[in-house]
């Protein structure tokens, strides 16, 4: 029996039995919604934290500008879930933009309820 490898089915069964929650993946594409503009732009997320997000976007955003970010998640069955958070542009360099969540994702923040999947992602990232 030495040298035998488990089959993919056996591995999937073992993993499936250990996993307690559905797996959901954060997609790197982020929608950028500018109030009063009516357009939805997109950016590619390069960094995410409890305080905010850095992304690459061709859409010109001014420092101090308030926007809404829509994060997208994809579940195991391919279904998509979206969560939106308000943010403020705090820096820009070329196509790179740094945004701060407004309000921040701190203890007791109403934003925590708005972004349950994003919070779960950040918690798993810290674990």
List the helices and strands and how they pair.
Elements: H1 8-18, E1 24-33, E2 40-48, E3 52-56, E4 66-75, E5 80-93, E6 96-101, H2 111-114, H3 116-126
Antiparallel strand pairs: 1-2, 1-4, 2-3, 3-6, 4-5, 5-6
Report on the structure:
The chain is α+β, with helices and mostly antiparallel strands and 127 residues long. It has one domain: predicted glycosyltransferase like domains (Thrombin, subunit H). Helix content is 20%, strand content 43%. A hairpin with a 4-residue loop joins strand 4 and strand 5. The longest helix has 11 residues. It is globular and about 35 Å long. The N terminus is likely disordered.
CATH class: Mainly Beta
Distance linking N and C termini: 36 Å
- What structural class is derived from the secondary structure elements? alpha+beta
On the 0 to 100 scale, the average pLDDT is 83
Share of helix, binned:
10-25%
**What's the CATH architecture?**
Beta Barrel
CATH level 4 superfamily = predicted glycosyltransferase like domains
List the strand order in the largest sheet: 1-2-3-6-5-4
Strand content: 35-45%
Question: How many helical stretches?
Answer: 3
Rounded Rg: 18 Å
Low-confidence stretches: 1-17
Write down the domain tally. Answer: 1
The third-level CATH topology is: Thrombin, subunit H
Order of helices and strands: HEEEEEEHH
Annotation, overall tally of beta strands: 6
Describe the main β-sheet briefly.
Answer: 6 strands, antiparallel, barrel
Q: What is the overall shape?
A: globular
